[in-house]
């Protein structure tokens, strides 16, 4: 017994319960906040999934390809706007319909129905491509050549639950390929063949000339004193002048000839089939006369001259690169000899040094905008 303390028996009545006694396990207060947190977490996950679905719908409607999804039974579950346009079906109409009805494919040659890539993707559990020459029969019965691919859709456990089909108008794809090929071989400003296409055609022309024993000529054109026009009136006027020059040169040529913009204010003309060297000089004289006429460009009247160099196959060279080099050399000799003329290549030109320079800064003072006529 502790000193200074006394033990006093307590009356059991003081422990009388004021409420009925509950049998069973006593509830734990901390269980309720846990359940609340779980519910909040589930709501957050559901909201995140809804936001992700909304983002996916916007993304699918924004891309340029058509997208269509199906379930394991082959029923349509989603279509983006491009898919609606290409198939002719709206999404409300298509949802739940068999894929074979909404996305009806036939062979372009036999017109027989073909197996859709979506079904193959599900059955083979891999990405598959569309067979060549497949045609989509749209809702109105019209037909459209398409290109597509399909891939299986998996759940979190890796089980296949459907497939996604991505397709586009094959004609648009062909147009794009043709546009890219054209841009790779043509000058953006004038639309003329560029250096790459000229080289290809020149090599072909030399091969034909070797076989049929005729001549090929290259005319290398450079506009005299083009730089002062850009300096005085700006590049917009200069670009318009180059386009006008390109148009006039093309009007002077035959269908079998090639006019190329080599770069800057330089042009090259391939005369694929000529009989005599005089045919090339006659073309050069015609160009000097036609291109020397005034140009009306954005309210200004402009006059230009040009220097032309000429080289011939097989007289001056028997390959494309050397023929181009010799025409370029002859053009610079034409500039040195007074400009506004033409000069044929000779072997002596390669034995004499020639300083090749464009218009030097300060050589030509900028022309005043009030000077509408240029006479170089």
Automatic annotation (TrEMBL):
Cited InterPro entries: Biofilm_reg_signaling, GGDEF_dom, Nucleotide_cyclase, PAC, PAS, PAS-assoc_C, PAS-like_dom_sf, PAS_fold
Pfam families named in the record: GGDEF, PAS
SUPFAM superfamilies: Nucleotide cyclase, PYP-like sensor domain (PAS domain)
CDD domains, A to Z: GGDEF, PAS
Keyword flag Transport: no
Positions of the GGDEF domain: 214-347
Domain PAS: 52-125
Molecular function per GO: diguanylate cyclase activity
Residue segments, region Disordered: 13-32
EC number: 2.7.7.65
The keyword Magnesium appears for this protein: no
Boundaries of every PAC domain copy: 130-182
Keywords: Nucleotidyltransferase, Transferase
Protein name as it appears in the record: Diguanylate cyclase
Lineage start: Bacteria, Pseudomonadati, Pseudomonadota, Gammaproteobacteria, Oceanospirillales
């Amino acid at each position: 017994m502790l000193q200074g303390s006394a033990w006093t028996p307590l009356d059991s009545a003081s422990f009388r319960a004021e409420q009925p006694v509950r049998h069973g396990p006593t509830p734990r207060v901390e269980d309720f906040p846990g359940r609340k947190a779980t519910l909040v977490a589930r709501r957050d996950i559901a909201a995140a999934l809804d936001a992700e679905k909304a983002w996916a719908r916007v993304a699918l409607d924004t891309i340029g390809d058509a997208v269509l999804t199906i379930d394991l039974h082959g029923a349509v579950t989603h279509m983006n706007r491009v898919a609606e346009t290409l198939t002719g079906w709206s999404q409300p109409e298509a949802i739940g319909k068999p894929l074979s009805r909404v996305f009806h494919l036939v062979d372009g040659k036999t017109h027989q129905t073909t197996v859709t890539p979506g079904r193959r993707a599900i059955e083979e559990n891999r990405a598959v491509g569309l067979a060549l020459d497949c045609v989509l029969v749209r809702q109105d019965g019209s037909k459209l050549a398409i290109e597509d691919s399909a891939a299986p859709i998996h759940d979190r456990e890796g089980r296949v639950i459907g497939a996604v089909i991505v397709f586009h108008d094959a004609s648009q794809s062909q147009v794009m390929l043709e546009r890219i090929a054209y841009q790779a071989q043509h000058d953006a400003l004038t639309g003329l063949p560029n250096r790459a296409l000229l080289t290809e055609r020149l090599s072909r022309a030399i091969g034909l000339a070797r076989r049929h024993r005729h001549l090929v000529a290259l005319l290398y054109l450079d506009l005299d004193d083009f730089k002062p026009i850009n300096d005085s009136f700006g590049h917009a006027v200069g670009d318009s002048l180059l386009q006008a020059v390109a148009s006039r040169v093309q009007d002077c040529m035959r269908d079998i000839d090639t006019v190329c913009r080599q770069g800057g204010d330089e042009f090259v003309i391939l005369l694929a089939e000529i009989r005599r060297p005089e045919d090339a000089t006659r073309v050069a004289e015609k160009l000097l006369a036609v291109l020397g006429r005034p140009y009306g460009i954005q309210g200004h009247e402009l006059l230009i001259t040009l220097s032309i160099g000429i080289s011939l196959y097989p007289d001056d060279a028997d390959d494309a690169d050397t023929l181009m080099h010799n025409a370029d050399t002859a053009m610079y000799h034409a500039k040195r000899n007074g400009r506004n003329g033409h000069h044929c290549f000779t072997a002596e030109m390669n034995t004499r040094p020639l300083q090749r320079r464009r218009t030097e800064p300060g050589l030509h003072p900028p022309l005043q905008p009030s000077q509408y006529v240029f006479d170089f």
